């Protein structure tokens, strides 16, 4: 089935079960006629197809039609809605006193411009958790910290954290085990360390970061792609939080935002921040060709904006 989604101040999109399409009115030089009960040649039986004339009533006509073009789902609104009222546990009085509405899956489907599969996938990416039927996103950084320091939250949250940050296994005896995902946990702890600092000395950050993760886990800078950016030109080198989900969804606005943060980017550095803009047949290289200008700097290809950044 198909559904049109969009509020009054939004450009409407058409959604199937798993895809989202922009809708645009296109003109045609051929007049389109609306004929109730109209049959195609394949639908006619042998007698009707032999050449007999069928009288039909024309109900209306049109000189334009809706043209559909596959587009990226507009998911930024999903995170914004869920973060309006983060879940703080069963003992918190906030849920009883909050005037902000909780959102069910059906509520999100009615206001977010994306297909059902795209919305459900994004909920997994956001580590959203259903609490008593409501799709409320958790303050996972806070809960994760408590979890590691053995101040356990409610059972419901413990299970959600284990599923979000680990893999579930069942042995031959039916015993359930969880193996924690090193990259995801290291990334989450790095975000906790960086979120209250404008910039962090890179060497000091790496030392504190390694000391903060559970024993046996190893931190690496490649775990922070799309989350934090290293400034190698500063002395000493620094690192700061730059989350891809906080950047604009529009292509040009995204590039404007990135070039306002840094004038010149290597392809390796900018790729995590524009990868999600690529359509099915579009590459990062094609995006850079369209929205950026390349040059060589100390033997390395870098990209800067094609237009002045205010």
Account of the protein in words:
The chain is of the alpha+beta class and 310 residues long. It has three domains: 3-44 and 56-70, no CATH class; 76-180, no CATH class; 182-188 and 198-305, no CATH class. The protein contains eleven helices and 14 strands. It has helices at 76-82, 94-97, 105-111, 116-125, 140-148, 155-165, 182-194, 202-212, 251-261, 267-274, 284-291, and strands spanning 3-5, 13-15, 20-34, 60-70, 129-131, 134-136, 166-170, 176-180, 200-201, 228-231, 238-241, 265-266, 292-297, 300-305. The strands form five sheets. It has a four-stranded antiparallel beta sheet with strand order 1-2-3-4, with no helix packed on it. It has a three-stranded antiparallel beta sheet with strand order 9-11-10. Strands 12-14-13 form a three-stranded antiparallel beta sheet. The radius of gyration is 26 Å and the shape is extended. Mean pLDDT is 84; it is low at 137-143.
Q: In short, what is this structure?
A:
With 310 residues, the protein is an alpha+beta fold. The chain contains 11 helices and 14 strands. It folds into 3 domains: 3-44 and 56-70, no CATH class; 76-180, no CATH class; 182-188 and 198-305, no CATH class.
């Amino acid at each position: 089935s198909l559904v049109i989604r969009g509020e009054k101040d939004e450009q409407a999109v058409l959604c199937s079960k798993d895809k989202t399409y922009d809708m645009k009115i296109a003109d045609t030089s051929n007049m389109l006629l609306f004929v109730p009960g109209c049959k195609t040649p394949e639908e006619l039986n042998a007698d009707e197809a032999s050449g007999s004339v069928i009288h039909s009533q024309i109900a209306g006509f049109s000189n334009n039609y809706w043209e559909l073009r596959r587009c990226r789902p507009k998911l930024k609104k999903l995170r914004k809605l869920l973060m309006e009222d983060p879940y703080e546990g069963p003992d918190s009085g906030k849920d009883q006193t909050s005037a902000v509405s909780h959102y069910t899956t059906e509520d999100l489907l009615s206001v977010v411009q994306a297909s059902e599969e795209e919305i459900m996938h994004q909920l997994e990416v956001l580590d959203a958790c259903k609490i008593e039927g409501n799709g409320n996103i958790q303050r996972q950084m806070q809960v994760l910290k408590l979890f590691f320091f053995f101040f356990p939250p409610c059972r419901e949250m413990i299970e959600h954290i284990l599923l979000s940050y680990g893999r579930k296994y069942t042995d031959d005896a039916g015993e359930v085990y969880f193996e924690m995902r090193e990259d995801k946990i290291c990334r989450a702890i790095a975000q906790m360390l960086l979120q209250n600092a404008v910039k962090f000395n890179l060497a000091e950050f790496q030392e504190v970061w390694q000391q903060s993760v559970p024993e046996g886990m190893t931190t690496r800078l490649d775990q922070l792609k799309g989350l934090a950016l290293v400034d190698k030109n500063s002395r000493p080198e620094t690192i700061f939080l730059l989350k891809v989900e906080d950047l604009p969804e529009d292509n040009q606005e995204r590039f404007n935002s990135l070039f306002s943060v840094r004038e010149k980017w290597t392809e390796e550095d900018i790729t995590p921040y524009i990868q999600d803009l690529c359509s099915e047949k579009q590459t990062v290289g094609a995006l850079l060709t369209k929205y950026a200008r390349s040059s060589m700097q100390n033997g390395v290809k870098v990209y800067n904006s094609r237009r002045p950044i205010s």
